[in-house]
Amino acid sequence: MRKVLKRNSASIPLYFLLFICFFFSGSMLAQDIDKGKSLFNSQCAACHKLKKKAVGPALAGVTAKYDREWLYSWIKNSAAMIKAGDPQAVAIWEEYNKTAMNAFPQLSNEDIDNILAYTDYTPPAPEMPAQAASTGGSTDSGFTSDIILAMLALVLAVLIVMLFLVNKTLRKFAVANGLEEAQAQKEKRLPLWKAYVQNQFLVFLTVIFLLLSSAYFAYGWLMQIGVDQGYMPIQPIHYSHKIHAGDNQIECKYCHSSARVSKHSGIPSLNVCMNCHKNIADYNGEEDLEKGYTKEFYTAEIKKLYKAVGWDEENQRYTGKTEPVKWVRIHNLPDFVYFNHAQHVSVAGVDCQKCHGPVEEMEILYQHSSLTMGWCINCHRETNVQVKDNEYYTKIHEELSKKYGVEKLTAAQMGGLECGKCHY
Amino acid sequence: MATFKKYWKNEAELSSDSEMITKLQNDEFVDRLPENHFLEEKEVLESSETTRRDFLKYVGFSTAAASLAACEGPVIKSIPYVVQPEKIIPGVANFYATTIADGFDFASILIKTREGRPIKVENNSDALVRGGANARVQASVLSMYDSLRFQGPVQNGENVSWSQLDESVTEQLTALRDSNSPVVLLTQTFASPTTAKIIGDFQEKFPNVRHITYDAISESAALDAFSMAYGSRALPSYDFSKAEVIVSFGADFLGDWQGGGFSSAYTQNRVPNKVNGKATMSKHFQFEANMSLSGANADKRIPLTPSQQKLALAKLYGYITGTTVVANLPQAAEVQLKKAATQIKRAGKKGLLVTGLNDVNAQLIALAINDYLQSEAVDTQVHNLVRQGNDAEVTQLIKDLNSGAVKGILMAGVNPAYTLSESKAFLEGLQKASLSVSFSMKNDETAQASQWVATSPHYLESWGDTEFNSGNYGLTQPTIRPLFDTRQFQDSLLKWTGSQNTYYQSIKNYWKRSILEGNSWSKVLHDGFLNTPKKASTTSFNATVSSAISQLTQSKSKGLELVLYSKTGLGDGQQANNPWLQELPDPITRVSWDNYLTVSKSDAASLGLTNENVADGALNGNFAKVSANGTSVVVPVLIQPGQAKGSVGLAFGYGKTTGIKEEMKVGVNAYALYSNFNQVQEVSIESVEGTHEFACVQLHNTLMGRGDIVKETSLEIFNTKDVEYWNPIPKVSLNHVETPVNSPDVDLWDEFDRSIGHHFNLSIDLNACTGCGACVIACHAENNVPVVGKHEIRKSRDMHWLRIDRYYSSEDSFEKDLETKEGIDGLGASLTTFGEMEDPSENPQVIFQPVMCQHCNHAPCETVCPVAATAHGRQGQNQMAYNRCVGTRYCANNCPYKVRRFNWFLYNENDEFDYHMNNDLGRMVLNPDVVVRSRGVMEKCSLCIQKTQKTILDAKLEGRTIKDGEFQTACSSACDNGAMIFGDINDKESKVSKLKESDRKYHLLEYVGTKPNVVYQAKVRNTDS
Question: B-chain residues within 8 Å CB-CB of A389?
């Protein structure tokens, strides 16, 4: 820890210096590259990547391959060029499975220059900042708490030694003053455990206490059988809800779409994954080096998806060889329980997190709630039914609120505690 | 008082110098115990270092370890689609309209699929023609998941590839064509226009191929008679809803007569609705030998043997037309015949006469009478096309095969080796053919004897089209990808013809060209049917009836007449390997898992045949040997009330030997006696040693006049008397004052307020219920009701949530029963009279009453459950929490209706119950919304709470109120007769809330005060005049 600390403190000014340099060097090219970057991201990134083939070819260094005038006309209307029989145009069209590129007549030559400037630009390798980012932050608090702990330990040790010494000195004084008689008297006293054993009533109480407490714990232990709260199995693909639902803010029901209409929330089929991952082949987000979640690690997981769905990244096409993913199911209700997601998600408008917990923070998904009947029932007792703007409830709400004398009805008052509503 | 008695075990002990005595003084036993025998490896045991104590330690440790390891929960895998089909959402059912046309049953239906698996058959209520599914059609979804199906093409029992099969078969077909050797294509009735076209094309390429249509149970006589009278070989179509007087001679039109499907039209006129204070309903006379569904529903049933029926039919013709026909009939029948004649004559155009006698003369007379009456219920210009078989050609085929005149045979949709009476001759001929191909789904009798099996798919995996009757079509579409490597018969023919088209493309092309007439293909495929009414240009009735009359009057029988019939459960026997159908009790006899000889009581007495009830209430019967034309079978005997004297009955469809599970090999093959395709055979019967054990769910006793179980009255009383007279509310004594049982003062409990939200009620109209059993199978499929097998049924452990009780009267009618009961005076008389009343009469009246959990508002079962596993819901449903049930069975004991069912065993994944729930394929039919119950819990009807909850959820999701008719149970949606109406009584406009207030309504055992949510509508019979 100390080593890191030293280097860290030393590197701060260095890093700062480098950053300033970078900033200025960046601002010199800014006109071209920043605009080009935003244009690239909005217009081109759906099909092109800088260094990799996607739907279309990689664009880094494209200016070296083609004449700039050719590029202008190609980008503005490629189809016309292919039709006209431009040899270069036809060649590239054929290479990419005769997929025509969209025409961009709205781009000016200046815009295209900016984009091309961005595609040609190679940013300097940000080695140092990476180091700084990975080691900063938490170390400071670690240092102080360690020091405080060490100091406390030292003080305690000194105290103990002092007490010991005081005690020793006092004894010496006592011996010197002839105070041994009191000690002799003490020896006659019955040892505590013997006294305890002889006291039958105390023994009886203890036994009762022990029996009751063991029964209590045994009951508690038995009640958790079949309750898999916190169940966190290893999945065949390390899918991080944190990255998807947390960092990238993807709505739960985008992937778990059947939760809206069906009893099952549904594990998304792999074609849903490919909606995004056709383009996202590499992971470029944050890393967690301590747990080994590096970029390479995440990228390798994406490759697992490609293998499962049969996606040939090189040629950007499906091979047809699929290996369906065998996910380990986490939330399991027994067969005799009927649970319907649509009822809770669409009708009641319950947040997914209410039962599934902070999924957007879960690197590995686990079972947040106990999923016991008591847990269900409690919620049904406390939760009000969303009767607003639902014509189904209009009449029943009117009558029931009159009957119970309340404005808002809980699920329980609506009949949500009846056995047959969930058990059939 | 010392005793000197000496006890001895062996004589040797008595002599004191015996060696034995000395030995016994030292040892306990005379001979050394043979411990070496079980400690044979003594040395090994002694050399082992494991002591006894160690051994016990290991045992203890491993037991503890195993039980600890068992605490670990199982890891459940979830595998999503790679590419999810657009239309499939896991957890949401999809429905597809399709058509069943298996040669015996034809219907337009909807298939419910979950995650791509068909799990249930529903009626296609939009279809105008044949939109109702009978019990067999309801059960047909399970036949797809038959574990004994062929998984690919087969040659002589060896699996081959399709290319091998195609190559060899086309080669042989070509060779046969080149040598001009005749080949026969033997098929079921397809009634498929595209198939007819494909067969035509096939014949064009192979002109040596002759097409023969074969119906296992023949309607040839009706077809031939129609052809004689109207010039084309077809069946007329009938609309029973237009008939006010129906006279039937042995036609079980509520069963499978002429392809069935008449019941919903029939029941339209059977429900008496009061208009201006007077109700009308049709009048139905039934002259028949076996007690059939139609006979049980008739207003007047007259038991007559088939030969007597012919006489009666001829005489009726005479009465109607005013000609003299001389024939002798029993006095009682004569009286009824005259009544029938006057009434049908008076009805004129509203009269209808039908006959099921497989006799051309009888069929001709029936056509003549309808023509004479100008009956509106018969349409001779709209042809019913679902039976086209030609017996004469089939008989000729057997001869040709044996003589070598036919060298090759292709068989599709038929199983002649099982369904022909001359199956032996057929099989011999089949061996002589140089080419035999069977297009079969299973290894049935015919497939086994054929060289090639071009394995065909189930109809739920197939394409197809059907013309039910002129201009009314149905489309068949696959509801699942083929489970196995199968190919449709039509696809094979197309391939062998050299066509590049698939059957699907052929249908589409043919329909676009000839049928659609501007209708959209997609819409027809979506709807499953197309109605383009067409009238055949049939000439008017043109046949001489005098010879037919004279031949009919000649008819007489020397011995007993055997009437072969098809049973509600198995029909022609195609689905004999379907456990749902095997376990479905016959509506009349209430026997499952069997066929049997039905004999009248007096015939049984004279033949020395008996039935007896054993101590546990099960039914046993004698065996009888039935012989006709040199063939004889030994069958168990069931004494059937209402069986015409001098006749006996036996059902088709049983006694299969191959392609069927061991448990399902029950009954005898009645086709063996079906010579000349005549359902009536003269037989001799003798008693045979042995006792047969029936699996009978209800015995043949009567109600003994207890009118509070089923209520019924006659139309005249219904029209003229006060409701208090014919449907009084039972009274109980309150403070010595007779008080109606529904008065709040009588109640033991406080009433719960159910006026808010939904309150479900089910109304069952006994007038509309024909007892067909479709609801029982629908309930089976919807609620994962297990099949328990013959032996368990015999022990009254059947699991049906819904049963259809059948009651007989001990006099000619239930009314007379009541009179007899009222007339009993004193204890002595009551003992003897009640004893007599237990037995049904020779020709009893029959009543059907479907009974499921009555969902009592004051349920006796709920108050006795020690663990509160059964409780009442606000919506009126009596709910059963299986996971809470500990199986005390107290509830079942306390239920006055006996509708609770106990899981005595684990019925799934248990080799002892090797039915569909014991294999992966069969379990695919299970409804994922309903739990499969385990051993030791009670179960019962839930009023399909999964369906009502689904309807509510759909409404909530769409933010709307629920319309009447949306709420359905499996039974109510399966009943196309309208006998079961389900709905919400808090919706005052709903049908069911009106039925709950109707005059005819009553509750089962109302005086018990259970306040059920199932309400019955009393039966009204049109017995007067």
Answer: 959
pLDDT tens-digit series, residues A47-64: 787 777 777 788 877 887
Model confidence pLDDT, tens digit, residues B143-178? 999 999 999 999 998 999 999 999 999 999 999 999
Residue B860 phi, psi (nearest 5): -65, -25
Name the A residues in 307-366 with CB < 8 Å from any B CB: 308-310, 322, 324-329, 332, 334-338, 340-343, 346-347
What was the pLDDT predicted at B4? 55
The region of weakest confidence among A228-242, B797-811, B832-846 is B832-846
Nearest residue on chain A to B79, alpha-carbon basis: A326
In angstroms, the separation between the Cα of residue A423 and the nearest Cα of chain B is: 6
Fold of B712-1021: Alpha-Beta Plaits (3.30.70)
Residue with tokens 């290991």: B58
- B70 interfaces chain A, CB cutoff of 8 Å: no
Distance from CA of B400 to the nearest CA of A (A): 53
Å between A102 CA and nearest CA of chain B:
27
- Greatest mean pLDDT range, A87-96, B196-205, B809-818: B196-205
Chain B residues close to A414, C-beta within 8 Å: 757
Question: Is residue A221 within 8 angstroms of chain B, CB to CB?
Answer: no
Q: How far is A90 from chain B (nearest CA, A)?
A: 33
Candidates 3.30.470.20, 3.40.50.740, 3.40.50.2300, 3.40.50.620; CATH matching B154-218+389-470+487-513: 3.40.50.740
Question: Where do the H-state alpha helices sit in B241-359?
Answer: 263-268, 293-297, 306-321, 331-347
B482-515 tens-digit pLDDT:
999 999 999 999 999 999 999 999 999 999 999 9
- B232-272+279-384: which CATH topology? Dimethylsulfoxide Reductase; domain 2 (3.40.228)
Residues of chain B with CATH 2.40.40.20: 557-696
Q: Classify the C-alpha dihedral B368-B372-B376-B382 as positive or negative.
A: positive
Q: In this structure, are residues B285 and B295 in contact, taking their beta carbons and an 8 Å threshold?
A: no
State the pLDDT at residue B589: 92
Q: Of B91, B882, B955, which has the smallest distance from its Cβ to A423's Cβ?
A: B882
Domain with CATH 3.40.50.740 in chain B: 154-218+389-470+487-513
Residue B308 has pLDDT above 50, yes or no: yes
Average confidence (pLDDT) over B328-357: 91
**What phi, psi does B424 have (nearest 5°)?**
-65, -50
The 3-state secondary structure of B990-1022 reads CHHHHHHCCCCEECCCHHHCCCCCEEEECEEEC
Contact B942 A392 (CB under 8 A): no
Q: What is the mean pLDDT of residues A244-267?
A: 92
CA distance B498 to B170: 10
pTM of the model: 0.84
**Is B867 an interface residue toward A (CB < 8 Å)?**
no
Residue B203 contacts A, CB cutoff 8 Å: no
Identify the pLDDT of residue A185.
56
Q: Record the tokens describing residue A402, joined without a space.
A: 């009159």
CB atoms under 10 Å from CB of A231, counted, come to: 18
Q: Which residues contact B889 (CB under 8 A, 6 or more apart)?
A: B902, B938
- Could you report the predicted ipTM of this complex, rounded to two decimals? 0.83
B75, B756, B759: which to substitute to probe chain A, counting the most A Cβ within 10 Å?
Answer: B756
Domain B557-696 CATH (choose: 1.10.10.60, 3.60.130.10, 3.40.50.150, 2.40.40.20) = 2.40.40.20
The CATH code for residues A2-129 is 1.10.760.10
Which residue among A258, A310, A334 places its CB closest to the CB of B90? A258
> With 0-12 CB in 10 A as exposed, 13-18 as middle and 19+ as buried, what is B731?
middle
Q: Is the pLDDT of residue B827 over 80?
A: no
A vs B: CB pairs below 8 A: 152
Q: Where are the domains of chain A?
A: 2-129, 191-225
B378 near B349, Cβ under 8 Å?
no
Give the rounded percent of residues in chain A with a pLDDT score beyond 70: 86
